[in-house]
Write a structure and sequence with these properties.
The protein is built from 9 helices and 5 strands. Helix 4 links the parallel strand 2 (58-61) and strand 3 (105-109). It is an alpha/beta fold. The radius of gyration is 17 Å and the shape is globular. The protein has a 5-stranded parallel sheet with strand order 2-3-1-4-5. The chain starts with 16 loop residues before the first helix and ends with a strand. The model is unreliable at 1-19 (pLDDT under 50).
């Protein structure tokens, strides 16, 4: 999908120009989750300490933690190019205030960048990772300098996804999910490869 899009930084909105227009843009690091790896605590820490971080020249954004100023509307797996570009425009506007505060570095933590936990229960291993990464790359207007992806073993990840849905009363019987959960054709290697390729970084760290 990335090859079909207009050149990065040339999209039809103001966007996060702090990343792409400075003579010395801040280092851009992305924490890409994933789910059920302690990312809520990290996002809470960044939010509570954002003033101190800005004072040290570090901007940060922690979407999807109940803080509407950084809310991101992600594209869906079957979205076409115009829909991805439209989603990227909204993401750019949401991230711009935090980007302006970044002097030396900018840390963006988006644990739902690969996709939603509900995808796993339907037998799809983060099918929207390509569309989501493309929208984020367009919104930022530049490649990432570093990506960190924290993962869990498949069996632990699937159980955690089911339990999270069960707590909310919307999970099918686990026995009904087992066939789908054992039929994935892709996994963490493909997710990591997509993130690195689309977001344009040569520095990808995968942690367990």
């Amino acid at each position: 999908r990335a090859e079909q899009l207009p050149c990065y930084g040339c999209v039809p909105w103001g966007g996060v120009t702090e990343f792409s227009m400075r003579d010395n843009p801040p280092k851009l690091a992305i924490h890409a989750g994933a789910h059920f790896t302690g990312s809520v605590d990290l996002r809470r820490f960044l939010h509570l300490n954002r003033t101190a971080l800005v004072g040290s020249g570090i901007g940060s954004a922690a979407p999807a933690l109940g803080f509407p100023e950084h809310h991101l509307d992600w594209p869906q797996p079957l979205d076409d190019v115009p829909a991805i570009v439209e989603a990227a425009g909204g993401m750019a506007r949401a991230l711009e205030p935090a980007a302006v505060a970044a002097h030396e570095a900018f840390l963006l933590t988006v644990p739902d960048l690969p996709g939603t936990a509900d995808d796993l229960l339907t037998g799809r291993f983060f099918p929207s990772v390509g569309a989501r990464a493309t929208a984020l790359r367009l919104a930022l207007g530049r490649p990432a300098d570093e990506i960190v992806l924290v993962i869990r073993p498949y069996d632990e990840l699937f159980r955690a996804a089911w339990r999270a849905a069960a707590v909310e009363g919307r999970a099918p019987l686990f026995s009904d999910c087992t066939r789908r959960l054992s039929a994935f054709s892709v996994g963490w290697p493909e997710v990591a490869e997509a993130l690195a390729e689309v977001l344009g970084t040569g520095d990808l760290t995968v942690m367990t």
